[in-house]
Design brief:
Layout (H helix, E strand, L loop, with lengths): L1 H8 L4 H38 L2 H11 L2
Length: about 70
């Protein structure tokens, strides 16, 4: 029934399809940014681990998580 009503009313408009495409592109861009930031964060944590002793590292990580 829903398919029949949807087909009767008409499918998505060209504007709606364009907006969906823009939103999907934005989501993809944001997902890529999250991956980039995670990689950058991992690198910073690794460098921090190389320069700080265990006690300092635990303290720094604790303060960073607040």
């Amino acid at each position: 029934m829903a398919k029949a009503l949807y087909g009767h009313i008409g499918g998505p408009s060209a504007e709606h399809a364009h907006q969906v495409a823009l939103l999907r592109r934005r989501i993809r861009d944001l997902e890529n940014e999250v991956l980039r930031l995670k990689a950058e964060n991992d690198g910073l944590l690794a460098r921090l681990g190389e320069t700080a002793n265990d006690g300092e590292l635990a303290e720094l990580l604790e303060s960073a998580s607040r």
